[in-house]
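Q&A log
Question type: sequence-to-structure
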Amino acid sequence: MKRFIFLLFAVFPIIGLQAQDNQVLMIDKGWKFISGDHPEVFSPEYDDAHMKSIEVNKIWEEQGYDPLDGFCWYRLHVVIPSELKTNASLKDSLLIYLGKINNYDQTFLNGHLIGVNGFKSADNQRDDLSFITAPINYWDRPRAYKLSLNDSLIRWDRENIIAVRVYDEGGQGGMYTGDQLIRPTRLSDYVSLECNLSPFRFNENTLSKQIRIRNVSSEYFVKGRLEIIAIHKLTGHEMFQQSIKIKLNPGEVFDYPIELPQLDHSQLVTYRFFVKGDRFVKVYHDETPYILTPPVKDSPQINGPYITSARPHHPFLFSIPATGKKPLKFEAEGLPDGLVLEQSSGIISGKVDKPGEYHVNIKVSNALGSDIRELMIKIGSDICLTPPMGWNSWNCWGLAIDQEKIEAAANAFVNEGLRDHGWTYINIDDGWNMHKDAEPKRDSLGRILPNEKFPDMKALGDAIHSLGLKMGIYSSPGSYTCGQYTGSYQFEQKDAHSYASWGVDYLKYDWCSYDQIARDTSLAERKKPYLVMKEALNQVNRDIVYSLCQYGMSKVWRWGAEVGGNLWRTTGDITDTWESLKEIGFFQIENQPFARPGHWNDPDMLVVGWVGWGPNLHPTKLTPDEQYTHISLWCLLSAPLLLGCDLQQLDPFTLNLLTIDEVLAIDQDVLGYQAKQTLVEGDIQVWVKKLADGTSAIGIFNLGDTTQGYHFDFAKAGLPSHLHLRNVWKNENLGSFVKGMGLKIPSHGVVLLRQIL
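Response status: OK
Response body:
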């Protein structure tokens, strides 16, 4: 029963609560696999004895097929019992669910096409083998295909052949969720309850949103009852309860507003829809946002890192992050020769010829007072001395990016105050240059050409720099990027010079199609393309932060610095799910010793706010507590902090999450130490990060699905027996504790502490 419930939740956001379902046929075992494109595999008569067994709960790279891009085939023999038809509560259709597939698929049943990229194929396509691609973000889309129960393709009580033709453009590939099944559809499948299409709105003392119930059927009438219950996550107290009867004609929509009190912790909101005539209850969960931190003060406060750097003779740009009631006045004493400060904006720019460490006294003032801090400006061979903080277009816009969206993101950094907290980089990801099918891709001198969406890269760079921000760009060492745009292969020096001429400050270099160039998977071949670009970047008169994006292959953290990397991806792509966040964030253990100033482990971008991989966006699927965990853990890990959300849709919770300076200061600490996992007790994990002032930051995480009381034993975590502690998110001193302290931690949540001297 437990397994059945989990699987239904993976297929749809529903859970069957009322009855055991015997109408589910699992098809997550017994699959066979062959690499390359072999169209004959779809035929029922094909002899697949030579095909290899493969699991469908993990990508094929984790099963010995690395590197592997392009076409591959999956094949399954399955007997579909007629009981699924005769005992079906709704004599409608058969659902074949294949989980998620990276990147594209065509699915065949008994030699005929039934679906493409998650959409049912038309009857006249059943013999169509032409491959239809889709937006690259379809790798995160469930593949669910339906056939009429009377469809002649289904061989009841006999062997059926399901064949799946997969095309992977680069990076990870294959069927990977492990929840594949076959079952008849139910009446409840036609009821959609949309409760997460928008975040809760903050009112004076309440939170509100509108939920929508939709009958997606074109023929069935639906009658039922909606029950809404809100429970305080920490105390378990019921905060809200309501029940309403609903009738929906085919295609009808019912909108219902709800309003809940604002609290200092999340409320778990459960929506249950009881469909008359169906044994199963549709269940959806939601959690309310909550803000822990007091508002920013009107008096001036200097934020951001205590150190910045540049190489001699290279352009220098640093915007002093500071909050307080505007206007602010900026002053700097001790700037090295060649640098100037713009007093109204706090932007320091110029060039420094002489290497050295320059101690600069920064002062920010307004009518209410002033704040003073020392800033170290280090001129030498090392750059990126604290983890980069910025925004990247990929998790938001995917390939639907254009110059206007980049300019809007830069302006939002200023208008929303993100620059005032140290957010600096505006990075263009894939899709800015010429597609592989377009000509010309380069000019007569071999210089790379932006596409029509980016008419003037130099002007874009100048506009970003004028705001005190820095510009990033994206390429691949292969011939093409992941999105099939022009890569840098054999044009590395020309591309590096183009980037420098445009004012690029950051390069994300994505492995992608280099799989087709590398001779093997040896360490030398994995290093080679990154060394080539390193040499090209070394020849330009500009500092360009070098981000290696190759998903942790060959334990890149051991050699990333050697090939010039300032940061390197340690994992595959993150998604806005708890499973992805947990799998990536809490496994940054082996790479811990290799993080240091100028060289950072990168567990991928932040998935808070509105994301979607372009062009259709949605609020992150992470709960508020999971988002607190996300930001806390990344800061403890000294990870690069790269937003991936639509900056035009920053709600109060998300903006607050990104502008708490005490939290960000943990990430930007000059020691550059990556936290260690020091204690695991059941679902509780403790991560400790040493800080430059001799203290520690401590994250106590609850990875479990329920709120837990926990006694935090300092000795078990390797900490001193007597600690003065501060709750970082609350900006609140907690007092002195001896040997330990009692805590209550919400599910998937965190308590973030900092030791006080």
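Response note: The two ends are 52 Å apart (CA to CA).
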